[in-house]
Amino acid sequence: MTARPASPDSSAPTASAGPDDARSRRYAMVALSNTTVGVLMATIDASIVIISLPAIFRGIGLDPLEPSNISYLLWMLMGYMVVVAVLVVSLGRLGDMYGRVRIYNAGFAVFTVASAALALTPWTGSKAALWLIIMRVVQGIGGAMLTANSAAIITDAFPANRRGMALGINQVAALAGSFLGLVLGGVLSEWNWRAIFWVNVPIGIAGTIWAYLSLRDNGRRTAAKIDWLGNLTFAVGLTSLLAAVTYGIQPYGGHMMGWTNPKVLTALIGGVVVLGIFAVIETRAEQPMFQLGLFRIRSFAAGNIALLLGAVARGGLQFMLIIWLQGIWLPLHGYDYEQTPLWAGIYMLPLTIGFLVAGPVSGALSDRYGAKVFSTGGLVASAVGYLGLLLIPTNFHYPSFALLLLLIGIGSGLFAAPNSTAIMNAVPAEMRGSASGMRSTFMNSGSVLSIGVFFSLMIAGLASVLPRTLTDGLASHGVPTDVATRIGSLPPVGSLFAAFLGYNPVEHLVGSDTLAKIPPADAHTLTGREFFPSLIASPFHHGLVIVFTMAIVITLIAAGASLLRGGRYVHVDEMPATADASLPAQPSVAATVTVSTADGVVFPAD
């Protein structure tokens, strides 16, 4: 083992004389531009439906507050994210085997066709809901093909000393897409709900043609067989686990939530067991799908743990903010319920702005100074923002709310790009597709888990306060005591989803016959814009305290994981392109020396 200067990554484009060659640089920018468009489109569609659900349900003639329709609502919301979380590792591995660009290009086409099918939904009612869910799953397959290979294509195209900037831009697009989707969904759904899917079609057609004409595989191909047993157990285990989380927040029998439902418990325990079997299979497989050996690299392991926990905290935040704005704050400030999706997206813009400002800057700086300071500091900044949201009143002054969103956006931007760069820099070139897929799995699984975790916490917080508040509030405006008591005893999930969708559920809950029998002034108050948000504001704040306390704890644990990533680690390949690389074990890094191994180089932190 001998010390040597850091060298550029040998897997950077080799078609020309060197990394500074103009042709190589032009191709790198084309790869960055196209993959950024692809990832932006895929992540926008992960969130665009969230804000558009009221318009979608109105458009297909389905009442989202009917208990029988809750499953449709949840799977429209989560189906896309579940599919992406389940498939990205497999599709990343297929990219390593058959070409990342080939899988990526196919993903662009699949995503575009599915978007057109969604926009052309021919039915109404439950048939339309089922069609939308199925096509969202197909769209998710295309999205997984895009996200699984985009980071690997960029890593192949850029040398190590420019990857932070490139991956920073790409990751800013990926996470900014989840925020921009909220604004875009609000704007387009005001016009027509089908427009949220039509908007993808021209971009998708242009992006697909551009990708097929411009992108080429610069990475190594790995001669391998598909790990069918690993793929199957991973898909079954993760799908079961995420489905259990989805149904766990629905009422069951006389319980507020479904965590005691035998089917939920079976799926939850079964999912964990099958994932355990999957881990055993992967340790023994000759050519595993999930490269568990990569977790021996401290930078890779710590980065993915921080990514998973950060996604859990951030995803829960997004949903709570939508409920807060659409269900409470906007109606209290004079906005009609039909307008709340649009304005909720607009009022959340500081979150996007903070991310867009901090993301590219931190990505470029991490090339020089490493990821640890930026990613850890970003998570701490986000935790401070969550603390601020916990402390402000439910009916807040917007400037203070906007500043807190800006801080959280800056924190997310500081974390995302350096963390992704550190993860991708740490792995051998021929495993970048798998590593990119694993990274996406952690991020998307965290987002799906956050829905179950934070909705469950919010429901638990509401359950202790909301029943009495609803009963007293309705009875004080002329609703018969027995009717008010019955409504107050209903599971809080109905009120929570009403707030999430920006609906006033009072008329639905009380019923037109009862409203006709009470004094007109009381009936007008009950069905007015301010009664329901005023009624649930205090119980909701009680739930918010629980939710944001958990978000702070999770984010600080993520910061601790990020802090443990060690010094700057960049893998440099020294083997022939036809050879299979063994996984590097993380060597201990001295404070001031560069240590080379048989297949990598470690750069110490500055």
UniProtKB/TrEMBL annotation:
Sequence intervals crossing the membrane: 31-57, 69-91, 103-123, 129-154, 166-189, 195-215, 227-249, 264-281, 302-330, 342-361, 373-392, 398-427, 448-466, 540-564
Note the CDD domains from the entry.
Answer: MFS_MMR_MDR_like
Give every Major facilitator superfamily (MFS) profile domain span.
Answer: 31-506
**Subcellular location(s) per record:** Cell membrane
Q: Which GO terms describe its cellular component?
A: plasma membrane
Entry keyword annotation includes Transmembrane helix = yes
**Coarse class of the protein's main subcellular location:** membrane
Q: Which PROSITE patterns match?
A: MFS (PS50850)
Annotated membrane topology: Multi-pass membrane protein
InterPro entries documented for this protein? MFS, MFS_dom, MFS_trans_sf
Positions with biased composition (Low complexity):
1-19
Region: Disordered; residue ranges are: 1-21
Single GO molecular function = transmembrane transporter activity
Signal sequence span is none
Keywords, A to Z, come to: Cell membrane, Membrane, Transmembrane, Transmembrane helix, Transport
Q: Which domain of life is it from?
A: Bacteria
What is the name listed in the Swiss-Prot or TrEMBL entry for this protein? Major facilitator superfamily MFS_1
